[in-house]
UniProtKB/TrEMBL annotation:
The keyword Membrane applies. The chain crosses the membrane at residues 49-71, 176-199. Keywords: Membrane, Transmembrane, Transmembrane helix. The lineage of its organism: Bacteria, Pseudomonadati, Pseudomonadota, Betaproteobacteria, Burkholderiales. It holds the Pfam family ExoD. This is Exopolysaccharide biosynthesis protein.
Amino acid sequence: MNIRDLASRLRDTAGQLPPGPVPLAALAEAHGGAWQASLLVLLAAPCLLPIPGVGSVLSIGLALLGLTLWWRAPHADLPARLGRLSLPSEGASRGLALMARFYDLVHGLTRPRLTALAGPSSRWWLGPMTLVMALLIFLPIPFGNLLPAMSLMLAGVALAARDGLLMLASLTMGAGALASSAALLMLGWQACLALLGLAA
């Protein structure tokens, strides 16, 4: 399934949800195996906003998703216990429609290429990378959420589109986020030492 077909499928499902609670298993099925990709995008996108506390809360969800990606290959089925949870129909419909619009916007930038980098084997680097990016988002680093969140959003799109080139871009951005955050932490540590008169 290409990303445009995925957007169409999500839009159709959003308009056909019955009233009442909707099991997460049904929402995952609507994604045709791309539920992890959409969840990466949904959890990472709000971290781009300069709203205090949002990154700290969502980083926990991202860390759990990172563990899931590590334990279960991308495009695997939703775990049965999680699938039995449910969301209100209205919220589920809005979420599906939002993801459909997002995939419509980005579909022109993606296509299946270097698919091995965005397939099941990507669990070995995507899981650890998601955990590291979640940690960077959690840390109170000024403007430190931007690059990690963008890296995870790129990874989500790469998974959904089976676009290995986009996955490489995500990994590169993640490496840049780690390097810049480490540099900022080092500068902050040196500034604290200087204020305390402990600098060499």
